[in-house]
Amino acid sequence: xxxxxxxxxxxxxxxxxxxxxxxxxxxxxxxxxxxxxxxxxxxxxxxxxxxxxxxxxxxxxxxxxxxxxxxxxxxxxxxxxxxxxxxxxxxxxxxxxxxxxxxxxxxxxxxxxxxxxx
Length: 118
Hints:
By secondary structure, the protein is mainly α. The protein is 43% helix and 3% strand.
């Protein structure tokens, strides 16, 4: 079959393309069905279910998925550990960067223990 693509119109080329894609999909589906049928037959000959074999199968070179452990405290609010005596609405948990009022307090030579919430 000798097709002269350069002599075909764009519409003809698009029709040909859709026919080729449809045929490729049909052949892929057929190949998959035949492979599945062959695998089922082999599994049956060995007296096992294909689903059991597939559950045990791992792709070559596949690494196990890493999963991050999420802290049980994630998303929970941490209670305030230090309170600003000049403005009781300002507090600090003791985590992260020190607020300016804590830095000013410490710069005055006062102790952080004096700010502890009791």
